[in-house]
């Protein structure tokens, strides 16, 4: 079953369009019209992401965000017609995780959704899941130490972040944009393609192979994918 996403949007066409698009992507979306309905949904159910419009009937999205943050750390993606810097800053200071202005491109919004859910998943390090293992590698989720056949390997901080992101995303792909945002620059504007290629090439060489398979796969036109099964232990 896919991640559960609550859409708080008073425009029926936008709300229904997002529900359809997210369901097509494999998520479990649910739409409500007001902030009051959203708060009720959070009281009784678990959500992996909230897409929250700012201009709502009754309580504003900003006020809803403030109340949600008193009890929950669910990622919040603001979706609004307000694109000025003051409103953006206000939303983020209240606890929002990202901000998309209307009119938006669906492809961009879906990319933001995937990124927020993945980052949240990366932070869920429970006692039942202290390690990610794949092939001959074992990655300690807390120390970020990487071992191969029982011996600790030396990776740079960025290499560790890349391995963590790719292993935790398996079997899904990681887009170049998400890799840049998580490992380098949140805005993804100041990293050259060649820089990414060099880092990936060095990491692939350092990882080597397992039973004839490379650990790191390039997905043309998309990004990268961890190529071997991953288990959480």
Please supply descriptive tags for the structure shown above:
single chain, 233 residues, alpha/beta, Rossmann fold, Arc Repressor Mutant, subunit A, 2 domains, 5-stranded parallel β-sheet, 5-stranded antiparallel β-sheet, 8 helices, elongated
Structural notes for this entry:
By secondary structure, the chain is an alpha/beta fold. It has helices at residues 12-24, 35-44, 61-68, 85-93, 106-122, 157-169, 176-183, 193-207, and strands at residues 4-8, 28-32, 49-53, 76-80, 98-101, 131-134, 137-140, 146-148, 151-153, 174-175, 209-210, 213-214, 216-219, 223-226, 231-232. It folds into two domains: 4-122, Rossmann fold (3-Layer(aba) Sandwich), CATH 3.40.50; 131-232, Arc Repressor Mutant, subunit A. It is built from eight helices and 15 strands. A five-stranded parallel β-sheet has the order 2-1-3-4-5, sandwiched between helices. It has a five-stranded antiparallel β-sheet with strand order 9-8-7-6-15, covered by helices on one side. A hairpin with a 5-residue loop joins β7 (137-140) and β8 (146-148). α2 runs parallel beside α3 and α5 (106-122) packs across α6. The longest helix is centred in the middle third of the chain and has 17 residues, at 106-122. The chain is elongated. It starts with a strand and ends with a strand. The mean pLDDT is 85.
């Amino acid at each position: 079953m896919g991640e559960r996403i609550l859409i708080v949007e008073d425009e029926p066409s936008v709300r229904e369009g997002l529900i359809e698009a997210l369901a097509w992507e494999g998520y479990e979306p649910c739409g409500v019209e007001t902030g009051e309905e959203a708060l009720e949904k959070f009281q009784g159910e678990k959500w992996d992401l909230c897409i929250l419009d700012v201009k709502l009937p009754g309580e504003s999205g900003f006020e809803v965000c403030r109340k949600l943050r008193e009890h929950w750390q669910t990622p919040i993606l603001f979706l609004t017609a307000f694109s000025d810097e003051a409103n953006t800053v206000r939303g983020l200071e209240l606890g929002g995780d990202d901000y998309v202005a209307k009119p938006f491109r669906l492809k961009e919004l879906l990319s933001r959704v995937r990124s927020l859910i993945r980052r949240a998943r990366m932070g869920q390090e429970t006692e039942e899941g202290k390690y990610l293992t794949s092939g001959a590698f074992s990655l300690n989720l807390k120390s970020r130490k990487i071992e191969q056949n029982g011996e600790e390997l030396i990776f740079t901080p960025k290499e560790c972040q890349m391995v963590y992101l790719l292993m935790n995303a398996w079997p899904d792909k990681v887009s170049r944009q998400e890799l840049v945002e998580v490992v380098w620059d949140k805005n993804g504007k100041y990293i050259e393609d060649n820089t990414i290629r060099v880092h990936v090439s060095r990491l692939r060489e350092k990882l080597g192979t397992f039973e004839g398979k490379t650990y790191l796969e390039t997905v043309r036109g998309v990004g990268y994918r961890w190529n071997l099964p991953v288990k959480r232990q």
